[in-house]
Amino acid sequence: MGNSQSTGSVVKEESKIRQAFKDRDWSEIKSSDSWAIFKIMSELVEGFEKLAKIGPCVSIFGSSRTKSDHPYYKMAEEIAAKLVRHGYGVITGGGPGIMEAGNKGARSEQGKSVGLNIVLPFEKESNIYIDPDKLISFDYFFVRKVMFVKYAQGFVVMPGGFGTLDELFESITLIQTEKIGRFPIVLVGKSYWAGLFDWIKNTLLTENNVSPKDLQLVSLVDNPTDAVKAIDDFYSKYLLSPNF
Predict the structure, then answer these.
(1) Using H for helix, E for strand and C for coil, what is the string for 44-107?
(2) pLDDT tens-digit series, residues 177-207
């Protein structure tokens, strides 16, 4: 069974590679690209319509592989519950692991629990803690990331892998380049993130590829109380508070 699945994956991958080099006529290109454009538009419209009135929310990112008995899962759940008690809703990627923990914590406090799900080969189902009217499924990663940034007043980044890093650096880049206004980005787990930020300081900063002020765009914390406090403190400077 395992070998047949592996062989099937290889064949599928080879097919994608070959397809990229295949000559296509104009009608084929036009029909294919037109379909993609309409699909992208439909995802954007659905996202805008469902999320436009959700109110202040914080996006929680982290690994889909984190098990429910892991300390990071428990921490994400507690952070989400605290955020709701402080007047925020919670947005996650809608899947398992840290995403599930975030939605579960929001649900436990009867807060807004939003899931921006994406269909992947290894993540097909959304978690059960998302409000039914706030679950949106996407085919395109970039459309999904628009929703994360557009409708969140802050990011809480739990330990995760490539997807988590992608979301983290996209948000930092958008703020750094002033494409969006600054909002708080809070990384949870100092020991987990220490190596990455040592490299940023010792390599990127030394090579002048980032500036010292860029390092101030994120806060590193170790517990749920400090994570939520970092967001509250940020908005208190502007005399803003979420709507209860």
Answers:
(1) HHHHHHHHCCCCCEEEEECCCCCCCCCHHHHHHHHHHHHHHHCCCEEEECCCCCHHHHHHHHHH
(2) 998 889 999 999 999 999 999 999 999 999 9
